[in-house]
Amino acid sequence: MRKTLSEISNFLGGRVVGDRDIVITGVSGLKEAGPGDLTFLANPKYLPLLKTTKASAVIVAEDVSAEGPALIRVANPSLAFTRVVALIKESLTPRIRGVHPTAVISPDAVLAENVGVGPHVVIEPGVRIGRGTMIGAGSYVGEKAVVGEETLIYPNVTLREDVSVGSRVIIHSGSVIGCDGFGYLTVEEKHMKIPQMGTVVIEDDVEIGACVTIDRARFDRTVIGKGTKVDNLVQIAHNVRTGENCIIVSQVGIAGSTTLGKNVILAGQVGVAGHLHVGDGAVVMAQSGISKDVAAKAVMFGSPADEHRQAARTLGHVGRLSHYVERIKALEEKIASLEESLKKRMDT
Amino acid sequence: MRKTLSEISNFLGGRVVGDRDIVITGVSGLKEAGPGDLTFLANPKYLPLLKTTKASAVIVAEDVSAEGPALIRVANPSLAFTRVVALIKESLTPRIRGVHPTAVISPDAVLAENVGVGPHVVIEPGVRIGRGTMIGAGSYVGEKAVVGEETLIYPNVTLREDVSVGSRVIIHSGSVIGCDGFGYLTVEEKHMKIPQMGTVVIEDDVEIGACVTIDRARFDRTVIGKGTKVDNLVQIAHNVRTGENCIIVSQVGIAGSTTLGKNVILAGQVGVAGHLHVGDGAVVMAQSGISKDVAAKAVMFGSPADEHRQAARTLGHVGRLSHYVERIKALEEKIASLEESLKKRMDT
Amino acid sequence: MRKTLSEISNFLGGRVVGDRDIVITGVSGLKEAGPGDLTFLANPKYLPLLKTTKASAVIVAEDVSAEGPALIRVANPSLAFTRVVALIKESLTPRIRGVHPTAVISPDAVLAENVGVGPHVVIEPGVRIGRGTMIGAGSYVGEKAVVGEETLIYPNVTLREDVSVGSRVIIHSGSVIGCDGFGYLTVEEKHMKIPQMGTVVIEDDVEIGACVTIDRARFDRTVIGKGTKVDNLVQIAHNVRTGENCIIVSQVGIAGSTTLGKNVILAGQVGVAGHLHVGDGAVVMAQSGISKDVAAKAVMFGSPADEHRQAARTLGHVGRLSHYVERIKALEEKIASLEESLKKRMDT
Q: Which chain B residues have a beta carbon less than 8 Å from that of A334?
């Protein structure tokens, strides 16, 4: 990147305070930035860093002033910064151009315009891939799978047969979409496999991290709702349905047939049992275990999880157990002494 | 599928109630089914759904009647349904026919009849693969590994050198069998790698989920017992041995040298420490942590885990801590008041 | 291997007790060993096994005597044994010789001498790979990534663009280095991706297990310090930095921007929240959850974690809750009876 501050400010519809002709050559965080970098300040608690940052310019809110770096004042600094960074990133993303000759593509697959296919990719019969989508090296797209437009599949991803992936989806390396749900019928101590005949639907604008596993439904479909973001090493079992715009952090496991509402947040290493519902906007804190339905907007903590203020009170009591035990001992001593004195008086 | 109800009933040794000539074109769940579908009812609590299902026919137990759909009465509806579904699934499983020309197969590997090898597979020297086994696209089979008959390896699996995989095994995408055990010798704060010279044996009829890691033994072998089923993202460390027909749910971790008996169930996200034994038929509930041997048939819960009824009692007490603290306060007040009145009386 | 005991003893600088001409053909553990095997005894509690081992020879400490097997006495038996085993393992490690013709290597990549590249590997433009490094079948090395000397990348690994991997590093199959950090800016309930423009640096002598995910930094770099060992299925988020010689056991998750000192040990399934510091030599016990900074050399346990002795005391109290509740009941009864007798006496 090589743009003047006024060019960037115009792009953002902002207002420059300071030298409009500074040349910006990169972007960075407030602490990490150096000369030539543009950065941003969104959280007022970092205001003191404006004095020490080595950045050449900072995107700030309308009411922020600073000595030192030049400023671009905007309504929403985080958003503005992200727009600048996206601009740069766009130009940085390694693009796959055309179909690599080592890819094995069925003549019965249909690839739209500008699809990029990396080396050693395999695309089976009946697959359809939308315009501008890229499939990274070594990835596998199973029979009759459908992938939308402008989607980015990183190297070494496995999309099993029949799965459906939307548009503007990102799937990171090592992930497996559409592996069999974990279902058995136990007859005389032996486990017979229950065929998993459904599929997985990944809606538009979803991002799936690395080494994520999403199981196909027993019948019907497992669904990742539009705009939901899934971090690395997450397990999503058969017939799970997440609403739109959920955030599912690393190493979460969601058991079969559970449904999440919209804008649910599951923090790292959370487990959710099967056949439950987690309501819209609920938040489950890290390492918690959910074994009952969760109400909309509830904030849950613990394993098994409780409403988080209740869980905090309980944890507080647990932490003070030594103290309570002391109080019980003191009571026992007082009672003994009362009994003693009462006995004495009765004897008199 | 396109079969009459009487054909399916004959296959199952069942008895039709209703129109024997209905044509069945698919299978589904009671709730999801539509016209042309066959479904089943095993759990009596779903009896009311018999009235509302849109399925054309339902497999039921001997004593079930219904208005609406046709019925096939059998002794075990779940089992019967699974037999029908397996029939269909068999015909649906994408079969790999022959050896794809892009596969790199050592001339020193021995492939039996009807082995299917997908594109970009690598099979190293000394490998032996049994009749009817399929190796999915991009999978790697290391030197001297042995795979049995009718086994299904999905795309992008890694089997390291010397591992042994039985017959009728299924291994899902992204899994790594035979990676090195995690062993170091720490000398002056530096960790020297202890070579892991053993291997992994996956016995017959095992199923391994996606992105599972099973470490090779330091010496000797890590063993997954016959008929055991392992879900996605499970970690099995070096020298672990599981008995037959265990169920190991997603994101479980089993540390080194621990042994499981037969028919053990480890629910999701369970951790088992090293050098322990979990007895036959034991069940460990989700997110529990096992740090001691577990008796046969025990049901364990918590981290650290306790016998589940004891754990439930303890959890109950923990949940009532506010209440107990109130009772301690009440006692303290009563004692104070007793002491007071006793003091008054002594003063008189 | 086929060496006499005296040859091995000379290599180790040890002293033989017994027949110097015994031929050693393999190595094994004390319990598993058979005739021809060399084994070792480091922990005095296994001394009784010296009588029953079937090994032909045992490496022992200076002061150990035994009837039965021949001995090699050395200062540090574990270390000595590892040196022997490493010797053997070295000769056992399957070596990749040359560049396989199916590998797709950019003409703009630079490979030093004796680099081995397996079948179906992809190496993008601008990559540099050091002398003696091996890249296993199906692995992907992204644009401008740098790999040091004598490093071993197992099959089906993904190294994303720009990552830097040191010398003598081992990375196991299925791992993904340099996937995007999990960062979004939420505007009106929708999550906008924050580009992750930094990278990952894996320093020298690191080992990374199978199916590990290490996210690239938002800016700057995620760092795995020299000599650190990471087990399978671990998640390391963006901008994390580990010190030298840490041990990170299977299924651990470390959230964004957290730093570990030197020689930190995180046991299995531990979670560490973001923006924290874990001090040098700290140990976190299995399944614990760290939500505050950890002091150097602290030993932590629980979720949320506490200093381990404090956590053990608290757990002890929790386990005795039934007992404490009985004591509260007993107090209530005694108080009631005291009140009763006091009331009676006042009535008289």
A: 335, 339
